[in-house]
TrEMBL record:
SUPFAM superfamilies: PLP-dependent transferases. It comes from Geospiza parvula (Small tree-finch). One of its GO terms (cellular component) is endoplasmic reticulum membrane. This is serine C-palmitoyltransferase. Pathway: Sphingolipid metabolism; Lipid metabolism; sphingolipid metabolism. It comes from the Eukaryota. GO terms for molecular function: pyridoxal phosphate binding; serine C-palmitoyltransferase activity. Its cofactor is pyridoxal 5'-phosphate. Residues 139-499 form the Aminotransferase class I/classII large domain. It is found in: Endoplasmic reticulum membrane. It is a single-pass membrane protein.
């Protein structure tokens, strides 16, 4: 969707009563920013990739003729007639483009990933083909990349006292699946707590967040079913959909017209060739999209799924704990009932500082998954100390520990998020996503600026995550910040000052509309949208 003069900036009005149209589905202002960069930025981005590709072919030519050392592994003579293990372009991109900035990923951390962490210093002597450790530790790097939204990734002895007790009682592993000898009383306790926290009948927990999606979606749908998936869904959702054998159709990100057209066509035409009715139609969406920072337009999606009698699968990996007045995710954020969503999924790897995931909803749904889920049948159960860490964090959020610390963390995260986003807008950066999303993508665009940005930030003792093609569209390379409740105002100001300076140095302040001495005006915008 677009709006002339302001790039793609969404502003949808929220009112008190539920209804059919956008204006009666929401209860507060909902603003998302997707400003388009000037045309010259896109042109220079393509030029950058073109220059990199040309030099890549030149270096391949030099390697083939022995003019440059071939560092990459080569196939043996006996394998010359084998089909290549990697496709040509994938291999070309890795050795000629990715390797130029490879030093910005997979950096080993040697401390808890809290608001600050320690980093093992490494250097390369062969242009990122290999690395060696210097033995030096870079101390107190400000962590702007971990998903530690509520600050529960911590090493405080008093906070982890119950986790220590469970470690001594149960040990580190279960060594069995849930259906065999792997269901412990801690799992039962955790599942009851998750169901209570979400306000649903029942829940089931799993030891791996990624597998919660990829191994459970095939149990819910199969051949003869239709999956309608948002184009920006996480890989775990995509993999689960593909493994299910169901027909998959993609709708444009958060675009209700695109989704409704697919739903209407599915009802009218049915399955291809036979035109029989679909056995099930299920909509797959995320609460917060981890690469865009946008929030799902849940009230409209629920309205559509009710209208066309479809099912809704909501992945709250990044939103549970991070949004909502008490951290209960996008369902609470929009003031809706958990019963409006058929399958509630989330992970414990982010806001809860642990590992694993959950599926929650009606008791019939959860009982079905206990029998048919691939994770329940084949995967090892969640280890008890991790389960206790989740229980500790969730009880804190619910106030069951006798304190208001959990609520304070949720409110602090909201304050930090709005402050950080507002300041970036004022500086003139293009950032994506919702004003309430702690995932903050800052657009870099040009491939040469990805490495320069991350290296310069590390020199200032700030750790960031940078992302480029093919993880993003080729013209939308970015740095992705994750704001935490554990960040102090001084830490955020240090990062913002570094960004202000680096934005001028690398010419990253592309925004044409967001510089303002009155940032509150963004919340007062009332724009008519175009489809």
């Amino acid at each position: 969707q677009s709006c002339p003069g302001l790039g793609r900036i969404f502003s949808v009005l929220f009112f008190q009563k539920n209804g059919v149209s956008n204006g009666t589905l929401y209860k507060k202002t909902f603003i998302e920013h997707f400003e388009q960069a000037p045309m010259y930025v896109a042109v220079f981005t393509f030029v950058g990739f073109a220059v990199g590709t040309i030099f890549g072919y030149l270096r391949d030519f030099m390697r083939a003729w022995g003019l440059e050392k071939r560092n990459i592994a080569a196939e043996r003579e006996q394998q010359k007639d084998f089909v290549p293990l990697y496709q040509d372009f994938e291999n070309f991109y890795t050795r000629n483009l990715y390797l130029r900035i490879r030093d910005n990923w997979n950096r080993p951390i040697c401390s808890v990933p809290g608001p600050q962490f320690d980093l093992m210093e490494r250097v390369t002597d062969d242009y990122n083909w290999t690395f060696r450790f210097t033995g030096r530790t870079i101390k107190n790097v400000i962590n702007m990349g971990s998903y530690n939204y509520l600050g529960f990734a911590e090493t405080d002895v008093n906070a982890l006292k119950t986790v220590t007790v469970e470690l001594e009682k149960y040990g580190t592993g279960v060594c069995s699946t849930r259906q065999e000898m792997g269901t412990l009383d801690k799992h039962v306790e955790l599942e009851k707590l998750v169901a209570s926290f979400l306000g649903v009948e029942d829940a089931m927990v799993f030891g791996m967040g990624f597998a919660t999606n990829s191994m459970n979606i095939p149990a819910l749908v199969g051949k003869g079913c239709l999956i309608l998936s948002d184009e920006l869904n996480h890989t775990s959702l995509v993999l689960g959909a593909r493994l299910s054998g169901a027909t998959i159709r993609i709708f444009k990100h958060n675009n209700m017209q695109s989704l409704e057209k697919l739903l209407r066509d599915a009802i009218i035409y049915g399955q291809p060739r036979t035109h029989r009715a679909w056995r099930k139609i299920i909509i797959l969406v995320e609460g917060i999209y981890s690469m865009e920072g946008s929030i799902v337009r849940l009230p409209e999606i629920v309205s559509l799924k009710n209208k066309y009698k479809a099912y809704l699968y909501l992945d709250e990996a990044h939103s549970i704990g991070a949004v909502g007045a008490t951290g209960r995710g996008v369902v609470e954020y929009f003031g809706m009932s958990p019963n409006d969503v058929d399958v509630l999924m989330g992970t414990f790897t982010k806001s809860f500082g642990a590992a694993g995931g959950y599926i929650a909803g009606k008791k019939d749904l959860v009982d079905f998954l206990r029998t048919h889920s691939h994770s329940a049948v084949y995967a090892t159960s969640m280890c008890p100390p991790v389960a206790e860490q989740i229980i500790r964090a969730m009880r804190c959020l619910m106030g069951l520990d006798g304190t208001t610390q959990g609520l304070q963390r949720v409110r602090q995260l909201e304050k930090n998020t709005r402050y950080f986003r507002r300041k970036l807008h004022e500086m003139g950066f293009i950032i994506y996503g919702n004003d309430d999303s702690p995932v903050v993508p800052l657009l870099l665009y040009m491939p040469g600026k990805i490495g320069a940005f991350a290296r310069r930030m590390l020199e200032k003792n700030i750790g960031v995550v940078v992302v480029g093609f093919p993880a993003t569209p080729i013209t939308e390379s970015r740095a992705r910040f994750c704001v935490s409740a554990a960040h102090t105002r001084e830490m955020l100001d240090t990062v913002l000052n570094a960004l202000d300076e680096l934005g001028d140095f690398l010419h990253l302040k592309y925004s044409r509309y967001s510089k303002s001495s009155h940032p509150e005006l963004y919340e007062e915008s009332r724009l008519e949208l175009e489809d």
